[in-house]
Amino acid sequence: APRWLCRKKRSHVAATGVCAAVFQRSGVWRSPRMLHSETSGAASDDRKSALLQKPGSASKLLEACLSADGCLETSLGPETFSEVLETLCRQNATKHARTLINALCKGQSHSTVFAADEHIMRVLPTYVDLVRRERDLEALNVIREALEQGKFGHALQKVTLVEQVYLSSVQLAIEREQLEEAVATMKALRRFARRPSTPCPPPGESSDGSESLTSNFDAVAQQFESERTERFCKTMRMFSKARDFRGLFLTMDAVQLCGLSLSAAVLDCLAQCAVREVSFVTGAVSMDTMPDGRFPEAAFFGRSNVGKSSLVNMVIGRKALAKTSKTPGKTKQYNFYLVNEGDPTNAFYLVDLPGAGYAKVSKGQRLEWERMFGSYVRERKKLRVLFHLIDSQTGPLEEDARLMSSLAGTLPVNEGRGKTQGNRALHYVVVLTKIDKQDGSVPPSVFDRLEQVLESTGLLSSREIPVLTTSAQTKAGREAVWQYLRLLHKHWR
Ligand SMILES: Nc1nc2c(ncn2[C@@H]2O[C@H](COP(=O)(O)OP(=O)(O)OP(=O)(O)O)[C@@H](O)[C@H]2O)c(=O)[nH]1
Ligand SMILES: [Mg+2]
């Protein structure tokens, strides 16, 4: 009948439509050869263009091909398939496009035909964008499932596609205020990214062994990097707007697991999202003048001029909130900054301490400083993280050793995470600052000396102590500081 129709009416499009109907109805003509003979020439240029003019009919045929196991490649080829799909997407013919993609994703053998196919990979992102715009979560889920079952290849395009599909689903869920669902989907992306075979082979290695992929990897990775980064940042902004910081930090994890660097853009976005508002609360001169301990807090302490105030500014992404100065002794009080005041579940204090000791300070003042510091560490029940800042050029000096000795008796044991003093977990973190002054590195001798001092003061014996390196000038080390600030709230981890 189709052949007859085709000859009689000279209409390939009509013929293909009939073909489709016959295949679908009867299920008889399943042989690829048969299909090929009926639609032979469909791949030839004029027939193809005829098909492309009527993508609706073409899609019917293609759908029939897909349900007639394995015929597509012999009859029309993936190129035509993706061209029709592209035309459908361009014309916003979502319904037809969706039918085709669903048939492809749910099919068995065809998926392998398309597994490593570049054509389909080229079109799918456009399709994903289309269904995302139409807020069709179900259509996204169909692709997600197919990807999770490994139906498509492992090319980098797939990696970006996986992210695009997951992040689109997450964004849709946030828009619908289904935050639990959004978080669950982000966790699924994290799991997916952790799988050994997917998604991202390191540069120079190919997960499917194809050489062209290996050689192109860097170029392709670069081409997609900004687009991928922007997608993650957009998701972070949406989580932050919905005041769901769990999702925000999960997205951060996913950025790294998906093989993207924590670029300045990502970290700026994190700082903006996690610090929605910040205000100076008070400059306390005694324990009584400190604000009430409603929110968890992190404190920055160390010798004068090591860069405490500068680090506070860098971490929260504000240029001059905490006052800095070349002259040691600028900060004279315990300066409390309250972050996210309007959002109690995500609020916290950052405390910028006055410098511990410098040349002009008298012995009495020094003892007074130490006494207050001791009370602060012991009595502030919501103090969760203590950052001890040390200049990376000098390494720990005498004053630092004294501070460490005094802390050795006060800090909880076990990696600094132990629960002593009534369920209290207090993390002690060493931060080597101003690493830009030596081209971003720290001399090994400084690390050696630090280890020596930590050991001699007894701090190392009962716990592991993380050592971070930072620069307020180049903003190096921001992400590491944030990983510790993340410990402030349980639900952020
Ligand atoms: N090159 C460089 N300079 C820095 C860095 N961090 C801070 N500084 C400079 O070091 C000086 C002291 O910085 P502050 O942040 O005021 O130090 P502080 O520890 O708060 O000092 P006090 O409040 O006096 O205890 C300033 O001139 C800063 O510009 C850094 O990472 N790199
Ligand atoms: Mg200061």
From TrEMBL:
GO biological process: cell division
Family annotation (InterPro entries): G_ENGB_dom, GTP-bd, GTP-bd_ribosome_bio_YsxC, P-loop_NTPase
Superkingdom of source: Eukaryota
Keywords from the named record: Cell cycle, Cell division, GTP-binding, Magnesium, Metal-binding, Nucleotide-binding, Septation, Signal
Pfam families: MMR_HSR1
Cofactor(s) demanded: Mg(2+)
Ranges where the record places region Disordered: 194-213
Domain EngB-type G: 294-491
GO molecular function: GTP binding; metal ion binding
Family: Belongs to the TRAFAC class TrmE-Era-EngA-EngB-Septin-like GTPase superfamily. EngB GTPase family.
Protein name according to UniProt: Similar to GTP-binding protein
Organism: Cyanidioschyzon merolae (strain NIES-3377 / 10D) (Unicellular red alga)
